[in-house]
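hiii so um. not sure if this is the right channel but i have a protein structure encoded as tokens and i wanna go backwards to a sequence. like what aa goes where. can anyone help
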């Protein structure tokens, strides 16, 4: 009888003390006897006793999953396997293990796994290299430092939402809470942003099950529409990766949701605590022997919020139906969210010093509703060729209501009504208005002149100190994509070639209106049914007050892409490219004829973006990587709607004109070293440099204090990143450091009204609308140079786990301080132009009462650190006692100065939540 060794150790290089070997990896073929086929595992604990554990083997080409549990003696056996598989073994109270191996499928592999007690930290060993599934590589094969996370770790971290988790664990990620709501953050990565705020320059693309989450109108990302509870895997790819399409300037976040195979059974999670927060998460999944599987998850969050008048309600659902066989799989995903959010945004620093829960003006409401449908298909045509496809439809309705101070009223006389105004008030039946002597000293919140000017249809836009800004956005987003992959493998050689194409279409309608009113002592606004419609709002500077915007937009984007990864010996080479063609057709509903002042226009953008990279295995678990990549971003509809220097606008209150803008192009270089050892140590050290050309910036108009979007020469973001994690029996440690140097590389003038070094103040006229000059080398606002993250998880016993993490950020410049020169004078200009650095510590405890019942407690901001996540310079309408003040200073050269200050976004104080999770 001849014996031939045909399969290497399936679990080679296991972490010492965590999984102590799979041994006896011999596969025997009998020349005369019957052929055995499959994999047989024996799962044991440290003492040699059998362990009941979940075993999952996922075919990386088709998505087909072989899944089951070892019996009481620790034995598990599968049918015939062939191809590339991710193998995962998990047991309650034990450290999990994953590996990727190529299985020949022509014999029986017998393996023994020894599991050790350890924290339940999951490491993903495969990453989707495109938005569509079908090309999944190990992180070691990718020429850039991808960061991954599993749904189990997101849940155990205590993070409320996806953005919160990314901030805690993903190196290079930080949050600006400009909206002041925990599920509406600006998520930044390497100085690029994915924000829910319309008008923010976007630079990170987000995909959920292959569907692009960046919304067509403005490229915004509504993080509240993504249910954290339903996420199975997350991968953050750095750089301008062209395979992820438009807007992938700084990185791409790819999310895969759970299914009935990944998440069988059910669980109910109930929690509550600080800020009146009440949260429920329910999920249920399962599968049948015929390959049918199902999964459903729902999440409800209700809270009062820690700041004044800031309740929120989040309602999320995701369901999935699927079918899989050995050669293919199909899944249909249905999502729905209906959320009402209040985020009261920035507050002037003087009021934060008196009360961090205070708000500047209110309300600031956002209502999001979005149904979502996606069909994913995968099929193995042959053992070497696979195809996959996607079709989706998404509807998004967003409505906002913002109570704001009217900055145009700050240099006006708002107090004592004159004779004509008093007559109008009396004729309308009003009483109690002053006949003389009203002033800022005795009237902290004036309103009589506002009411009178509305009645007279005169100048309410200058005499009313309050605004109610409303917007409504309806978007229909649809598309399809398909790709085909071919794989060839031999001794020391592997080639994976993939070709794909995608089409995305959208229709969007956007409308915006402004109602005039007056501020109340509680900072709310009372509207007076006078609008910025050119009629009821009277005049401003002798012209009809009209700030309406009503835009209908259609967009089409088609692309073809390809990538080829060749592994030979110690080296892996990757070549990629994507051609994009985008057409945007804007129609101004109010001014349909194209020309100055109209939003109507058609724009076409196209470009081919290449990428290339290499990975070299240096031995001893260490590899070197390097890559070059390009990506582009077409101007969004809102940027095109405010791009005419002859018709400047003041976002978000109006849009006008759309001469063509050029698309942004980013070129990124990456290089570094990374490694892992048998002691479960993983580490990486890298350098990156991303250069933007034709960046889009909101600049100052030469005619007025308004502005418009313009292509801005160059910006650059470069730095270094260090990451490490290690599993030491019952303890897991991890962390990272990022140095980020984000700078302007061209000269430009931008609005600098709140900056003490603006042109008017330097000429002796303070507190006026004016510009500042950016010079090459100035740091980009809200980009900290230093970021530090660390976490520790310890299994104190087989039932008790402790978790701690710390997030530290260095200081950054405030928006409005683009020239980095602002210095307060204590009179006209208040507050620093810097957002200070901070460090926040979070703590968690989990107790497994039984296999099915867990109790947990999470404490955020353990040491109650008072910190700031964002800052912006702007006009101040209130004095130090909180009273509204117009014309706070005497006139200078005939102009009344407006006091300027710094506004900050405060981080949440110490808070605690407790709850229970029941599995069934």
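sure thing!! here u go:
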């Amino acid at each position: 009888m001849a014996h031939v060794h045909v399969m290497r150790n399936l679990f080679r290089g296991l972490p010492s003390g965590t999984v102590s070997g799979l041994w006896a990896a011999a596969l025997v073929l009998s020349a005369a006897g019957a052929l055995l086929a499959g994999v047989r595992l024996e799962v044991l604990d440290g003492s040699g006793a059998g362990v009941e554990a979940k075993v999952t083997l996922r075919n990386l080409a088709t998505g087909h999953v072989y899944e089951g549990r070892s019996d009481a003696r620790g034995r598990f056996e599968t049918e015939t396997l062939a191809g590339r598989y991710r193998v995962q073994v998990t047991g309650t109270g034990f450290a999990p293990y994953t590996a990727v191996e190529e299985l020949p499928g022509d014999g029986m592999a017998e393996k023994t796994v020894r599991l050790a007690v350890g924290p339940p930290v999951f490491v993903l060993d495969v990453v989707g290299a495109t938005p569509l599934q079908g090309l999944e590589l190990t992180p070691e094969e990718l020429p850039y430092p991808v960061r991954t996370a599993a749904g189990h770790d997101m849940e155990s971290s205590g993070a409320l939402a996806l953005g919160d988790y990314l901030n805690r664990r993903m190196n290079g990620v930080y949050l600006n809470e400009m909206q002041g709501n925990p599920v509406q953050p600006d998520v930044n990565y390497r100085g690029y942003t994915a924000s829910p705020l319309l008008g923010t320059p976007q630079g990170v693309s987000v995909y959920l099950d292959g569907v692009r989450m960046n919304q067509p109108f403005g490229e915004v990302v509504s993080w509240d529409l993504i249910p954290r509870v339903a996420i199975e895997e997350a991968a953050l790819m750095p750089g301008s990766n062209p395979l992820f399409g438009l807007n992938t300037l700084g990185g791409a976040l790819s999310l895969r949701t759970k299914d009935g195979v990944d998440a069988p059974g059910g669980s109910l999670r109930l929690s509550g605590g600080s800020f009146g927060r009440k949260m429920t998460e329910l999920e249920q999944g399962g599968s049948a022997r015929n390959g049918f599987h199902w999964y459903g998850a729902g999440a409800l969050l209700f809270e009062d919020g820690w700041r004044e008048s800031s309740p929120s309600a989040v309602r999320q659902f995701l369901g999935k139906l699927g079918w899989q066989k050995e050669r293919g799989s199909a899944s249909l995903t249905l999502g729905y969210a209906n959320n009402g959010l209040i985020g009261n945004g920035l507050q002037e620093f003087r009021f934060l010093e008196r009360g961090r829960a205070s708000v500047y003006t209110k309300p600031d409401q956002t209502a999001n509703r979005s149904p979502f449908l996606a069909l994913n298909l995968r099929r193995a045509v042959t053992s070497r060729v696979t195809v996959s496809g996607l079709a989706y439809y998404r509807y998004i309705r967003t409505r906002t209501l913002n109570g704001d101070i009217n900055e145009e009223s700050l240099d006006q006389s708002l107090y004592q009504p004159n004779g004509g105004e008093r007559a109008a008030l009396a004729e309308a039946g009003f009483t109690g208005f002053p006949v003389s002597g009203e002033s800022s000293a005795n009237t902290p919140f004036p309103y009589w002149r506002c009411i009178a000017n509305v009645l007279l249809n005169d100048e309410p836009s200058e005499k009313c100190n309050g605004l109610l800004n409303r917007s409504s956005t309806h978007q229909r987003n649809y598309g399809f994509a398909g790709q085909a992959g071919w794989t060839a493998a031999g001794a020391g050689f592997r080639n994976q070639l993939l070709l794909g194409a995608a089409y995305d279409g959208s229709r969007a309608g956007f409308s915006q209106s402004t109602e005039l009113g007056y501020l109340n002592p509680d900072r709310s606004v009372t509207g007076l049914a006078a609008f910025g419609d050119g009629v009821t709002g009277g005049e401003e500077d002798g012209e009809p007050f009209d700030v309406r915007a009503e835009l209908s937009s259609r967009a089409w984007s088609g692309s073809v892409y390809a990538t080829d990864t060749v592994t030979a010996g110690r080296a892996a080479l990757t070549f990629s490219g994507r051609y994009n063609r985008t057409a945007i057709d804007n129609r101004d509903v109010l001014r349909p004829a194209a020309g100055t002042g109209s939003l109507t226009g058609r724009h076409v953008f196209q470009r081919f973006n290449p990428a290339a990279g290499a990975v070299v295995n240096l031995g001893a678990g260490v590899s070197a990587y390097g890559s070059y990549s390009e990506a582009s971003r077409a101007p969004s509809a809102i940027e095109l709607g405010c791009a005419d220097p002859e018709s400047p606008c003041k976002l978000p209150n109006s849009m006008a004109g759309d001469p063509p803008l050029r698309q942004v192009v980013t070129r990124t270089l990456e290089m570094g070293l990374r490694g892992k050892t048998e002691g479960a140590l993983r580490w990486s050290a890298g350098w990156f440099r991303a250069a933007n050309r034709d960046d889009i910036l909101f600049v100052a108009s030469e005619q007025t204090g308004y502005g418009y979007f313009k292509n801005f020469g160059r910006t650059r973001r470069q730095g270094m990143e260090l990451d490490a994690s290690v599993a030491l029996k019952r303890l897991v440690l991890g962390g990272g450091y990022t140095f980020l140097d984000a700078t302007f590389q061209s000269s430009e003038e931008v609005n600098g009204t709140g900056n003490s070094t603006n042109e008017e103040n330097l000429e002796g006229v303070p507190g006026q609308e004016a510009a500042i000059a950016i010079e090459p080398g100035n740091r980009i606002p809200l980009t900290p140079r230093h970021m530090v993250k660390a976490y520790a998880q310890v299994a104190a016993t087989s039932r008790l786990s402790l978790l701690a993490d710390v997030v530290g950020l260095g200081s950054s410049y405030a928006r409005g301080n683009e020239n980095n020169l602002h210095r307060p004078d204590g009179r006209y200009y208040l507050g620093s132009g810097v957002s200070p650095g901070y460090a926040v510590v979070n703590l968690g405890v989990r107790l497994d009462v039984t296999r099915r019942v867990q109790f947990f407690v999470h404490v955020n901001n353990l040491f109650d650190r008072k910190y700031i996540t964002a800052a912006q310079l702007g006009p101040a309408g209130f004095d130090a006692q909180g009273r509204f003040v117009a014309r706070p200073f005497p006139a200078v050269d005939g102009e009344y100065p407006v006091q300027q200050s710094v506004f900050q976004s405060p981080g949440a104080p110490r808070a605690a939540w407790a709850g229970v999770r029941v599995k069934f």
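oh and The longest helix spans residues 419-427.
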